[in-house]
Amino acid sequence: MDSEGHCCTAVTSYDADACRAPSAVHHNLRLLLSDDVRLRVQAAKEIRRLTKTSQRCRRHFSAAVRPLVDMLRSGSVEANEAALLALLNLAVKDETRQTQHDLEIIAHDFLTIPTQNSTLQFPYSSPPSELTFPSLFRNKISIVDAGALGPIICFLQSENSNLQEHATASLLTLSASTVNKPDISASGAIPLLVNILRHGSPQAKVDAVMALYNLSTYSDNLSLILQAEPIPSIVNLLKAHKKSSKTAEKCSALLESFMGFEEGRSALTSEDGGVLAVVEVLEGGSLQSREHAVGTLLMMCQSDRCKYREPILREGVIPGLLELTVQGTPKSQSKAQLLLRLLRDSPYPRSDFQPDTLENIVCNIISQIDGEDQCGKAKQMLAEMVQVSMEQSLRHLQQRALVCTPADLPIASEVSSK
């Protein structure tokens, strides 16, 4: 699954062959210009089918973007849905660079498409001097430039659940383009996506949180997302999904990005089970999710240790942190160790007589934990962590010994035997 939330599937030879024939492309483009709504719907459905798995078809049907966007403004719900789904398939994974042959075919399609009564004019009246214009065929950008955001925003507010779901999925795909992110946020989509996150269907909620994640990578959007108060809904979504899922990863990434704001930190601690949900990801999430989770807790503790230390400790974070110090990514390991230092009774380094070792830090924290079960689990985790650390050190020493001993030199026992 990629940033657009779609799985990659194989291209069928039938669909690929259909898109190689200019007549098939022209036929469907002509139908899109028909005065008969039924024919336009038929063409949109065919374009959707052909572009479902074929990257070649997506490139060859780039000329269909504007007529399909025009269909979004039709009063027919069937036409709206057919056009939206066709655009969604056109926008999926369209960033690859075209071959010279592809560019020549598409450029021909972009010039004129004859119809029964008129000629459809496209942006160029003559072929470009050099057919190396990769940005021209990024359908995500073309769809937004053609004015699709207005109708899509309306569909987000529709009482038709299918249109609402398709519109959310469309924003997920379109928001994968860096160029589109400012336009999408300026369109007013963010509070509507948060509303979908609260009240939408299960699939719409997943698509909404992934779209919000895509938008959050544009720094100016973070404050706009926070203003819509998404954290309670993100926490609820996190609770409802497996901690190792892609959805949990995006939820965790969003929460970490919000911790740079006091309103984000306060919202997480105020939400019932908010900190606990993050701790559970730290314990059972994917490597990337665990990195986001420990980053979330670390940013909280670094911002105001006195305020956030107790809420974090209360949720039993120590065992997960201990495991992360030896089994996480390099970033997770360093963040976990730093967080352990902040969670102990005194955040300041100890004297030379009490070295600031990880073992001392953990023992200091364990001594303050209430409950025999939690304390026993933390001590067991510490013992396992020490064992794993010793095994890793031994392997490291053995590897160094192999590297430092030239293969052609006799080992010590052989020298002495001579």
UniProtKB/TrEMBL annotation:
Instruction: Give every U-box domain span.
Output: 140-346
Keywords, alphabetical: Repeat, Ubl conjugation pathway
The segments carrying the ARM repeats are 188-228
User: One Pfam annotation, family name?
Assistant: ARM_PUB
Can the keyword Oxidoreductase be found in this entry's annotation?
Answer: no
Organism domain of life: Eukaryota
**What InterPro entries does UniProt report for this protein, alphabetically?**
ARM-like, ARM-type_fold, ARM_PUB, Armadillo
Any idea what this protein is called? U-box domain-containing protein
Task: Give the organism the record lists.
Answer: Escallonia rubra
